[in-house]
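Retry 2 of 3 after timeout on previous attempt. Resubmitting structure tokens to design endpoint.
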């Protein structure tokens, strides 16, 4: 998908992530790589979801007792695209570090 900057007319595929810091406040937005004018956030690329089969073990049962089932698969954080933010439910997960490794 190509984007066109409304300010300078630059045609580009990927905007840059710009952060402006002033007087202790910061603002982050997607911008034109040429003139840094704010552009709309690009839509995430459509990808097919892979179906994976998991074997239930004692560890999974212990995890359910400890606080619920993960909506993702173990290792999700390591395999996610680098530009994808970490989901909120992962930030409070007890196994986050292991999922990243």
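Retry 2 succeeded. Sequence:
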């Amino acid at each position: 998908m190509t984007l066109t900057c409304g300010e300078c007319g630059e045609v580009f595929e990927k905007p840059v992530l710009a952060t402006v810091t002033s007087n202790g406040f910061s603002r982050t937005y997607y911008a034109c790589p040429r003139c840094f004018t704010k552009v709309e956030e690009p839509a995430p690329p459509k990808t097919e979801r892979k179906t994976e089969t998991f074997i239930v073990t004692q560890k999974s049962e212990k995890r359910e007792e400890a606080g619920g089932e993960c909506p993702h698969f173990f290792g999700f954080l390591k395999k996610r695209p680098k530009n994808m933010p970490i989901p909120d439910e992962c930030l409070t997960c007890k196994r986050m570090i292991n999922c990243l490794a």
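Attempt log closed. The chain has two domains: 1-43, 58-100.
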